Automatic annotation (TrEMBL):
<protein>
    <recommendedName>
        <fullName>Integrase p58-like C-terminal domain-containing protein</fullName>
    </recommendedName>
</protein>
<dbReference type="InterPro" id="IPR054465">
    <property type="entry name" value="Integrase_p58-like_C"/>
</dbReference>
<feature type="domain" description="Integrase p58-like C-terminal">
    <location>
        <begin position="18"/>
        <end position="51"/>
    </location>
</feature>
<dbReference type="Pfam" id="PF22938">
    <property type="entry name" value="Integrase_p58_C"/>
</dbReference>
Length: 97
């Protein structure tokens, strides 16, 4: 049973934690679970386990990544500057030197 924190409604506290990896199913209706690799295992009764279905997993929809947008803008600016420099004829550069 999870204890509620001060200032947090009991209704808003998640009822389950996880997901856990099932390592071993015992004959006495207990299951050995582990949350992360390398962490300590726990022995729990099967009535405390809730199955995890693929539809329950939160999947982020592809969205705009601002870092990529900034990099694209910088690349476009650099490309425009390069094109403008190339528009200057090589003859005019040689004569000005």
């Amino acid at each position: 049973m999870r204890t509620s924190l001060t200032g947090i409604s009991k209704k808003l506290i998640p009822r389950f934690i996880g997901p856990f990896r099932i390592l071993k199913v015992n004959n006495n209706s207990t299951v050995e679970i582990q949350q992360d690799v390398g962490k300590q295992t726990q022995l729990v009764h099967v009535n405390r386990i809730k199955p995890l279905f693929e539809s329950m997993i939160w999947k982020d929809e592809p969205g705009v990544e601002f870092l990529d947008a900034r990099i694209e803008k910088q690349a476009e600016k650099l490309l425009r500057e390069t094109v403008n420099e190339l528009k200057i004829s090589p003859l005019s550069l040689e004569t000005s030197v």
